Amino acid sequence: MTLIGFKTGRSTRHDRYCSDILTTNIGLFGEAMWKKRHLIPLVRVRDIWEKTFSSRLEQQLYEFSITSFTCVALLARLHEQTLDRAPSLLSHIPHYILYAWTYTPQDDDTPSCMSLLRRIMEEQAAHVPDFIEAYINECHRGYSSHLAGKICRTFRNDTIFGEDALTMAKVCCPLICDQRVLQRQEHLPEGKGFIPSLLASCQRQMCGSLRDREGSVYCMFIVNVVCAARRLIAEQIQRYGGELNLIGVIATALVGSINEKHEETVNSALILLDMQASYVPRTRRNPDLAQQYTDCLTTSAHVWHDTLEALQGIETTGGAHLALKNRATDAWREHGLVFNLKEGKTASDQICKRPSIQPFWLSDKRCFLDACACSVIRPTHHVRVCKGCFRAMYCNVACQRRDWTAGHKLVCGQ
To answer: What predicted TM-score, i.e. pTM, was given to this entire model?
Structure first.
């Protein structure tokens, strides 16, 4: 690639000729590499990180997988640069990139890999379902489990956020929503399945240090995905919805979709809202599900009033937009009644107040910025302690600064 000016940006007539040959034959190259996928070692992630290989051959195969993955990705980029379009889904280039990514433990290549696959899939959106069907069929029997595990682990990576997270979701969600992949979640550890991992990713996007339009767009996309697959993952939604703040995701998506006049997302959000509310009676009656009810109450009370105010404050343009806003606002009020949440009452009237401040090593690891979504549930990412009092904890400097202005400066060090 360097020889033909790919890296330097300068190329000669012979370089362009070489580039044309490569891009013209990209399908043959992709097919040849796809037939060699069995050479990618299916070794444990720990063994690769520690570079402990049982044989010289195993090490060589690992090095081959890394080199071939890089080569195929560079060739795909060259194709885009030369022809101004992504490689075809039929070229087997996306097949090999996705397969190699599944067995690559490093996360450094994930953003660029997902970005390339997203461009390919968006340019040929009509053919994506057929591509996924054929791709899963061509892989070996245990691949669905491996793919599900890789995707869920990547969703839980708190270093991937913003546009990179949205790109990852747009590529991975259609894959993991394939019934064959979705059913393989049973082999994943408790709390590491599709819904827990997806909600953990949403939580990162709603973090007080990151909240912006990208976070809203991300939640809107995830709400549509979860709604579409709700019948297959209903048990996980009931089990983890309250614990991992599904209502916060729904609230963010609802406000964002009303602002964007996106009726499909509003409908998806309202379906999930009804779905979560339907679980409340059974959790109230069953002592074994008491914690699920408490989690739903806590997370709902945390966002209900602010969301209602946000919905009421949206300026509408036209009758259809007003009707959409009113439908969403009425549904949100009804959800509040399920937990006896009413206008005029503060959130502190509805839920138990935070216990008295104690040393951070004894405290629940949550962000102390009340406006942050990570204050209502334990975040998946690391939190930092305030060096002034060693009691309050925050997601990062941005949350800490906001809470300092909000009033922590009055009590810090006391």
So the answer is: 0.84
